[in-house]
Amino acid sequence: MTHPSDTGPAPVLALKGISKSFGAVRALRDVSLELFPGEVHALAGENGAGKSTLIKTLAGVHRPDTGQVLLDGAPVVFHGPGDARDAGIAVIYQEPTLFPDLSIAENIFMGRQPRKALGRIDHRATHDATAALMQRLGVDLDPDRPARGLSIADQQIVEIAKALSFDARVLIMDEPTAALTGSEVARLFGVVRTLREQGAAVLFISHRLEEIFEICQRVTTLRDGAWISSEPLDGMTEDDLVRRMVGRDLEELYPKQDVTPGEVALSVRRLTREGVFTDVSFDVRRGEIVGLAGLVGAGRTEVARAVFGVDRWDAGEVEVDGRRLTNGAPSTAMAAGLALVPEDRRAQGLVMDMSIERNIGLTGLRTTVKAGLMDRGAERSRSLDWAVKLQVKYARIADTVNTLSGGNQQKVVLAKWLATGPKVLIVDEPTRGIDVGTKAEVHRLLSQLAADGVAVLMISSDLPEILGMADRVLVMHEGRLAAEIPRTDATEETVMAAATGRAAA
Amino acid sequence: MPESLTRAVRWDTVVGALLVVVLLLSFTTVDGFGNALNLSFLIGNTLPIALIALPMTLLVVSGEIDLSVASTAGLSGAVMGALWNQGMAIETIIPICLVIGVVCGLVNGLLVTRLGLPSLAVTIGTLAAYRGIAQIVLGSDAVTDFPTQYLDFAAGRIGDTFVPYALLPFLVLLAIAVVALHATPFGRSLFAIGASEEAARFAGIRVKRQKLVLFVLTGLMASLTGVFWALHYASARYDNATGLELSVVAAVLLGGIDFDGGKGTLGGAIAGVFLLGALQNVMSLQDVSAQSQIVVTGVLLVLSVLGPRVARQIAVARAGRRSAAAPPVSKAPTPTS
Ligand SMILES: Nc1ncnc2c1ncn2[C@@H]1O[C@H](COP(=O)(O)OP(=O)(O)OP(=O)(O)O)[C@@H](O)[C@H]1O
Ligand SMILES: [Mg+2]
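^ thats the input. predicted complex w/ magnesium ion below
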């Protein structure tokens, strides 16, 4: 395989000596990067390394303090995302930016809908163009449904469709696969390959290293805001890449301890929510990590939401430690010792405008109390304790969580729930957007919690994670439990077969 | 974006400073402002706004609003007048009025939390409805002959000082509200609800119940204000306190309570209330007509929504300049924290 850099075409987009600080945080220091037409270029680094900041600088969201952005070799200054888009740069940000009340089609063609005579919006044409994009992406989403209530994966798809609709020369994707399962990733990669063959340059961020090796030709690594290397991926190993990212060798990624399961801690019986999931029954025992696998849309998240009580169920029952839970009441679920780390950290996991301290403190409103008043000292030490345990990278504990990098936000969500000392912990995509080093850390933590007698139910679209961590794997398919596979029999094939409805389990 | 920097320019501090400036200016330039009697009038006339502003602040922090408060106050005054006319004892009437306030708040709260209707729409509806009921109850009568010791308490002041008797119970209520909003788990949950209702629900906060409690408290305080109003002005009429909701909302927003919820302090809100009260007092002393005073209140309302936003933008712009002015970054590797 030849690399664009060898064949010598000019970079379509380049960054030279970019630095960017936020107050005392130096998010980027003297970073350079070249993007060539026809290449998929990976940007790798730990949480908070500066990847998203780099992208926002490229796209005109942030202005660099020093350094230049070069488009076709000429310096440009983007005054906002609109400028970048007009220059043919499409960006899919880490956080989807859809308008919840607009339809999918309106979101995609926001402000540039096809027009009919007299400037009226041509809804038919908008609809058809959207449908065509969806078909190109191989997904089945109704262009006319509102964006509100779309799963993260579907929101991501809409963002990608939006980017495609610009016929961009440069496509920048900040963790587009974090919310996708294997088949959806494959579908996305199909689209990326087509774009690349058409001569587009793609900048791709992912914490899943195998994806980087699968789709990218070159990789640029950042560490603590500093440029470490830019090089071809050919001949590199995952360990090489990790070493560049974290500056040391990595410990075991799936440190699963063997535990003899104890009493049943979570018992779900014939749980049904009409039109969403049907007749779901399973147990999770103390000390066990049970994986819940399935395609996006299979109903995994919905089961978790109902068990925790943020959605009501129509039939069935849920018990924690033998105590029946009230339908639709998260507060009683919490009191019974249940914790849910939800899938959407920005909307559900965190109050983005609140400090790290208070976000973690939100689950302690019943415990860090003295004589009916908030015990600020206890609240602070509880929050600090867990922020430190999970190695959240922050400047001050009183900073709002929206100043944290995506992965560090995820750690705050984990901290917030681990601080409740749960008996049953449900984690929905616990390592979404978390770098390899921290991922190993989170896995170690989950394993340790299980060893300490916590019952863990882990929903994950990351199949290696499920296979590496779960004692048992439950697989959902179209709203029903399709299979239960013990650790010894769980392989990529058996799980995927059940998830796609091919298994006769 | 860097929200933490907005603390550099705190709007409630700005309003507090503004209040001090307005008071100093009025003392030195407005004839008749500084004497104890006028000051006691100022405070007494502002107390209805202040009383309702307490629960309204909590409500707006949680992302809701109640525009029916003035009608609830009017209804409570009308019921008071009607029952008094029938010869019932005032000691029985007042609790009945408070219960009516609770019911008014409960209706608002249930419509908002059970049916999921927006509180702005619900309470515009009940604003009209409660006022209509008040008119049905009392017609166009004006009841004035309440017992003198009650009238004296509601309108009088302590000796020759500027302190109305009624200020004292208000200060107690204020202290309770400050503690409730800023030092209890309940208050903490209101900020979370206002900033992100969904995240609050996922944290096990009983969002609907908290909101229902707030609407009930607001109804209760509105009816208490209605009772106070009728006694303070020695007149129970169905149209008592008409338009008071405008002053309350203007004052609360002026005090830096974010209309979108999740932000603000009670201190700021009360500074806003007394700033508005002082301005109204000065305008009355200068013979500005009541209509013009409403215009001023309306303009303040618009400014108070704009003010904090402008302050935030200034803070952001400043932060931007600061980061742009940071010293050049060296290439030497620095240790990880
Ligand atoms: N608006 C902001 N205000 C203050 N600090 C910020 C802001 N945006 C980013 N930072 C800080 O800059 C650093 C780099 O963040 P960035 O989001 O670029 O990391 P990242 O590499 O994308 O991480 P992740 O993999 O977790 O998404 C972090 O320390 C972060 O806290
Ligand atoms: Mg990022």
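Residues 1-7 of chain A have pLDDT under 50 and may be disordered.
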